[in-house]
């Protein structure tokens, strides 16, 4: 595998907060800010956007993208597994210090890079 330069953790964390804020606003408008609805909205946004475009709104705002380390498209099934691990929280905060990739990215062969 070619070494990919991953985005800094701080940028990735801010991107998650942007996406969570967007999910919270949608949840507040349609579900009276129900926490389960917020989580589901966040997950759906992640799966659909990362799976099809390679980035979420938060990623785009911060100039980041999710890429496969082998150069292919992320695709919906990788985005689904990656998002499931992020929603579990703990895997998202475990990363390989050698390449800066989180467990969710290592599990599906992706990385978050700065554009």
Explain this structure to me?
The chain has helices spanning 9-31, 35-52, 57-61, 75-87, 103-108, and strands spanning 64-68, 110-114. The radius of gyration is 14 Å and the shape is globular. By secondary structure, it is mainly alpha-helical. 57% of the residues lie in helices and 9% in strands. The protein has one domain (9-114). It is built from 5 helices and 2 strands.
The number of E-state strands comes to: 2
Which range does the strand content fall in?
5-15%
Number of domains: 1
* Major beta sheet, strand line-up: 1-2
Helix content: 55-70%
Our measurement of the CA-to-CA distance between the termini, rounded to an integer number of angstroms, reads 20 Å
Strand and helix layout:
Blueprint (H helix, E strand, L loop, with lengths): L8 H23 L3 H18 L4 H5 L2 E5 L6 H13 L15 H6 L1 E5 L1
Antiparallel strand pairs: 1-2
Helix pairs in contact: 1-2, 2-4
Offer a quick outline of the entry.
With 115 residues, this protein is mostly helical. The protein has helices at 9-31, 35-52, 57-61, 75-87, 103-108; strands at residues 64-68, 110-114. The chain has a two-stranded antiparallel ribbon with strand order 1-2.
